[in-house]
Amino acid sequence: MAPALQITGSAAVGATTIFPPLRLEIAAGRWTVLLGPSGVGKSTLLRLVAGVETTIAFTGTITADDGSAIAPRVAMMAQSDLLLPWLDVFDNVTLGARLRNEMPDRARARAIVERVGLTPHMDRKPGTLSGGQRQRVALARTLMEARPIILLDEPFSALDARARAAMQELAADVLSDRTVLLVTHDCAEAARLGDAIFIMTEKGMDAVAPPATAPIRDFDASEVLDAQGALLARMRGAPV
Amino acid sequence: MKAARQGALSTTLRLAGVTVLMLGLWQALVALTDTPAFILPGPLRVVEALWTHHALITHHALVTMTEVLIGLVMGASLGAATAIVLAASRGARALLRPVLVFSQAVPVFALAPILTLWFGYGLESKIAMALLIIYFPVTSAFFDGLMRTPGEWLEMASVMGATPARVLTRIRIPAALPALASGLRLAAVYAPIGAIIGEWVGASQGLGYLMLFANGRAMADLMFAALVVLAFLTLVLHAVVDKAAHWLVEHQTQSPDSKVRRIVF
């Protein structure tokens, strides 16, 4: 089962504060969106959850409500697709198992590739795919990991508007049962995808009420457009 | 397309033109200054010597190429293996790296007499020279590549719970193959130098021996002929290794169970 997560603490490098003491509750099996301008430590927070941050000192606790360790239950997807250029789509999708010295579940991998719509490109190398297709492969690789906690670090921000909308819908669909933490600086994305939305600024963390409807919401729905405007105003420092 | 072809053609023409011009100058210089052939033979004399002594030159060229090829394969394998060991183990790095760097302070050429003393006048001492001269460039190029794996890939692997051995064979080594390839290209040019030096110090066969032999008998034309053949063989070797290196990079590691089975580390 996907656990809920709780993060309390602050981060610093030496005497330089990366982010001040803050508290973030991530609901089980939901999409929690962490919205904020560049450079406020959103990605750092995500990397701390994944256990890959080595240069930044975190003071506080990051815990799952079931008490088990978090890092082994995490899959991560970033803005850069991180595909290995010498492997074809299928081998990239099954990379995790191979790196763990396990036999990849080929049938499941094929089903996942089918689900992200890349079956015709199964044997192609990343270099021959479009940006949107490459990001689909990265999503398939993340899904293949079968981890209950999914950390998304601006995974759609390098895509053009059309590919981004399509990827948001696909990701919302395939990751619906996981605990998802999405880091983004895109207010529209937050308004479409968030079950819960937090704005992170230099001062700390603020919870913002998401639109009343359930995600994923239509990009042109009025409550999404309203929320998008309100989020941007909040990010720019306007009072609530 | 047409323009590109014309460009290639004109490059070839220019190259041929320059070569003919240089050879012409050489011949003219020899003819005009009346330089004795035992000091500087003209290109025609060299071609003549190539033809007259072709059996002799072929024999010695085969010996040299044997030394070079064996030295190249052994040096490249040892160099690649060393790089992998160094990249895989922090302990090995701490222990071996200073030794490796220090070893470079000893000029390999200076070792030639010692190698001849140890391995004798046969192939072995020349193979050892060729091996030694390429070992460090290959090790260092491949090792640098292995240590420069993009950090994001390593982080992704760590989130996936990868084993260090698998990270090495599935990510770090394939990602470092272009670096290994440039080391191998260098090695293809260095290896003949090693073999020739070895032959100069003490041999009864090989192009290096043939050059000394011709020198001792004031047969400068034969010396130049041997030199031309050596240069030609080095160029061919470099071209072949370059092709092989390209192939290596293009057809990198495939998972053993993918449809096309290629190089598997």
UniProtKB/TrEMBL annotation, chain A:
Residues annotated as transmembrane: none
Single GO MF annotation: ATP binding
Sequence ranges assigned to domain ABC transporter in this UniProt record: 2-227
Pfam families per the UniProt record, alphabetical: ABC_tran
Keyword set, alphabetical order: ATP-binding, Nucleotide-binding, Transport
Family in the record: Belongs to the ABC transporter superfamily.
Name of the featured protein: Putative hydroxymethylpyrimidine transport system ATP-binding protein
Organism: Pelagibacterium luteolum
UniProtKB/TrEMBL annotation, chain B:
GO CC terms, sorted: plasma membrane
Family: Belongs to the binding-protein-dependent transport system permease family.
GO biological-process terms attached to the record: transmembrane transport
Compartments (UniProt record): Cell membrane
Keywords: Cell membrane, Membrane, Transmembrane, Transmembrane helix, Transport
Transmembrane segments: 12-32, 68-87, 99-121, 127-146, 175-198, 218-241
Main location per the UniProt record: membrane
Membrane topology: Multi-pass membrane protein
ABC transmembrane type-1 domain sequence ranges: 61-241
Organism: Pelagibacterium luteolum
Record's protein name: Putative hydroxymethylpyrimidine transport system permease protein
